[in-house]
Design a protein that fits this description.
alpha+beta, 22% strand, 165 residues
Length: 165
């Protein structure tokens, strides 16, 4: 039931953010976490970041580049995957999956090149392709270059999973 508590907390945080105006007039005034909360389409990601204990890290100085899967991307995972990842006994796996979506530094779309490799915070590389649209390990970048106070968010349409150890 801990997952439900976190989702409830996230909903309360989202409701509070909406009540005080949602997005700030300038998204770059908010950090990565606050920007994701205010967007409203990253509820699962925010709940997972909270469950993994990574909120303070992603609110830190950075800069970070986050490839942020939408709620729909998490929903497309096999049934039960998200619930399983949110279980306390799977904390290390959840942290690995989430940190696989983060690259140190601020990488804007203009910095990308085809077949570019980037080392994630998790430690494994992702492959970025730029021909026919930008992809990260096959996930399509649907919105790029959302600047925040401590980095940049690129929205992706799939959850990318680190290689098995």
């Amino acid at each position: 039931m801990k997952g439900n508590h976190m989702i409830r907390r996230t909903f309360i945080a989202l409701t509070a953010a909406t009540a005080i105006g949602g997005f700030a007039s300038s998204a770059s005034a908010q950090d990565i976490v606050d920007t994701a909360v205010a967007a409203g389409s990253f509820n699962t990601l925010v709940a997972a970041v909270e469950a993994a204990g990574l909120v303070d890290t992603l609110k830190g100085e950075g800069p970070f580049t986050v490839f942020a899967p939408t709620d729909e991307a998490f929903a497309a995972l096999p049934e039960g995957t998200v619930e399983s990842l949110l279980m306390p006994e799977n904390l290390e796996t959840l942290q690995a999956v989430l940190t696989y979506h983060v690259v140190p530094g601020k990488v804007m779309s203009g910095d990308l090149s085809n077949n570019m490799m980037a080392t994630t915070v998790q430690g494994s590389d992702v492959t970025i392709m730029t021909e026919g649209g930008v992809t990260v390990n096959g996930a399509n970048v649907v919105t790029a270059d959302i600047e925040t106070s401590n980095g940049v968010i690129h929205v992706i349409d799939a959850v990318i999973l680190p290689p098995e150890s």
